[in-house]
Amino acid sequence: MEQDPIQNEKKVSRKAISKKLRFEVFKRDAFTCQYCGMSAPDAILHVDHINPVAAGGQNEVLNLVTSCVSCNLGKGARTLSDSTVVKKQLDQMKAISLRQEQLAMMAEWRNSMVGLEENAIKSIADYINRNLRSSEFKISDTYLSDIRNMLRRYSVEDIYSAIDKSVMTYLKDTSTQSVDAFLYYIPRICYWQKLERENPMIAQVNRIVGLASKRWYHCNRQSLHRDILTYHEKHGLSLDLISANVMNSTGIMQFNDSMAEVIDA
Ligand SMILES: [Zn+2]
Predict the structure, then answer these.
(1) Distance from the CA of 42 to the center of ligand 1, in angstroms?
(2) Which single residue of 75, 142, 173, 256 has CA 20 to 30 Å from 23?
(3) What is the 94 CA–ligand 1 centroid distance (Å)?
(4) How far is the CA of 63 from the centre of ligand 1 (A)?
(5) Can you tell me the distance from the alpha carbon of 185 to that of 208, in angstroms, rounded to the nearest whole number?
């Protein structure tokens, strides 16, 4: 690059490298002298011009390199002859710009994911509202955040299928339909579907407990759950048999008595 001689003259009275630029160079070079490999705090570091100021070198990040005091003094005002340092610096610059590019790509990717999520929320909300078209009700902003939470735990397909199931149970029969129940059970059906897929045994135990709590006057769900697991896992009794005994009992005492008979038999 041709320099205007007068301007060049001015530049020789070296312009201070800003603190910010110095920090950028140190960070890029990992606070290590690029000539000898000494690093802070063992070495006092300077920022060195690869192409000296006297030769028209500028305070640009590409013309600056981290140097310890002794390397910096030893080099004097000579142009750096070791081209490997320049190459190393260029490689580092490439690595940095690659990393910056990747960060930018990652940010873009994250934004597009947010966009996808917003789209999914909107289409699920539309689907729910379409199922509610006979009522005046439209889902609230609070329910939109419920949908967002569902999307973090369950797939879009699972959510649609839960909506369909909830429609069948709570909306189809106009004499008993309940919009509140319809909405309330969508995330719960999602949970049951997932449990059914991932742990069918526990899902069946839950169903038996649900059955008991509907049929019995009083039912301690937690202790019944524990008892059923014991009968099934410790005594090897089938869940179908356990379920039949729940159906034939009026409460936990009768149920446990009938199970004791089975075990003793
Ligand atoms: Zn050094």
Answers:
(1) 11
(2) 75
(3) 23
(4) 17
(5) 19
Cα(223)–Cα(243) distance, integer angstroms: 15
How is residue 265 annotated by DSSP?
A: -
Ligand 1 centroid to 9 CA: how many Å?
29
Q: How far is the CA of 157 from the centre of ligand 1 (A)?
A: 61
| CA–CA dist 28, 64 (Å, integer) | 10
Q: How many CB atoms lie within 10 A of CB 115?
A: 10
> What's the 122 CA to ligand 1 centre distance in angstroms?
60
1 C-alpha to center of ligand 1: Å? 29
In CATH, what number does 5-81 get?
Answer: 1.10.30.50
- Separation of 49 CA from ligand 1 center, angstroms? 14
Measured in angstroms, how far is the CA atom of residue 24 from the centroid of ligand 1? 18
List, in sequence order, every residue forming a beta bridge with 46; answer none if it has no partner: 67
Residue boundaries of the structural domains of the chain: 5-81, 199-265
The alpha carbon of 51 and the centre of ligand 1 are apart by a number of angstroms equal to: 17
Are 159 and 192 within 8 A, CB to CB?
A: no
Pair 15, 49: CB distance under 8 Å: no
Q: How far is CA 63 from the centre of its chain?
A: 40
